[in-house]
Amino acid sequence: RWNCFDLFVTLASIVDLLLTFALEPTSEVGALGAARMLRLIRVAKIIRVVRYLRNVRAMIFTLLHTLSSLGWSLALMAMIMFLFAVAITEAVTAHLLQQGAGSAAVLVKYWGTIGSSMYTLLLSITGGINWEEAAAALETLHLVYLQLFVLYICFMVFAMMNVVTGFFCEHAFEMARSEKDSLIQEQLRQKHLYVKHFRQLFSEGDADGSGTISFGEFERFVEDEHLQAYLAHLNVDPENAWQIFRLIDCNKDGEVSIDEFTTGLLTMKGPAKALDLKSIDYNMNKESKRMQRRMQYIDAQLKEIQSLLTARVAS
């Protein structure tokens, strides 16, 4: 999507550049106006910054995603307004035919036609007017129509608006969840690309086709430009070939399989995390306890040997 957007902005800039050179100052005003409009499209480059702002991007995608829902919500509200407007306008029209239009100027202003009635109903629930003024005009008509108007206000404010707000909030939550899912899918896609690239590198490093890479093969493989570029990206010195080989050789058998190669390079990718440091601390404590038990065993063996030697000398 971003590539299509970049293509659109680039094409608009090219067309604008061509028109700038092609059009003379004496050209038609319409053509110059079109050129100016194309020039304004270049301002859309600012939108490219949105891709790096996750929260702003999520809000924009949520707004775009709810446009269709907004259309249906407005259509439903228009239908409700139309029904109330027809009922009230018919009564007002009948009243004006009997009493004359000059006797109720306020009624004509707010409820004279279907259009003005719908406009009044819209302004009443959106803060455009004080709906008490429109209600007072209906009070001169009949108490039933005043009650009908109050029923409309209560229904739209307390029911319809809350339903629409909840509907949009639900869509916003869905978009937030889909944004997280898309980020996860993007990370999985990046990991798949890395694994595919590592397998290609492994096939290049496996000179004898044995399915494993020995240290000698790896030492020659380190000179490959692609591997050097990746190691440089990881801030790993390619000169430390033995250290790299030792880190990715999980089985410690002197041979690196394709799984060890891909897993080792993926593990080296990115900064050290708290989990990595905790794992190192755990392994060090485990190794320290193992060495302590080994030293205790050796100490016991030495004491036993010493006691045997002492007994033999004494005899």
Automatic annotation (TrEMBL):
Pfam family, one: EF-hand_7
Signal sequence range: 1-22
Record membrane topology: Multi-pass membrane protein
UniProt KW keywords: Calcium, Membrane, Signal, Transmembrane, Transmembrane helix
Chief localisation class: membrane
TM stretches of this protein: 59-88, 108-131, 143-168
GO molecular function, one term: voltage-gated sodium channel activity
Subcellular locations according to the entry: Membrane
Domain EF-hand stretches: 193-228, 236-271
PROSITE patterns named in the record: EF_HAND_1 (PS00018), EF_HAND_2 (PS50222)
Any Gene Ontology CC annotation: voltage-gated sodium channel complex
PANTHER family xref list: SODIUM CHANNEL PROTEIN 60E (PTHR10037:SF62), VOLTAGE-GATED CATION CHANNEL CALCIUM AND SODIUM (PTHR10037)
Protein name: EF-hand domain-containing protein
Annotated organism of origin: Effrenium voratum
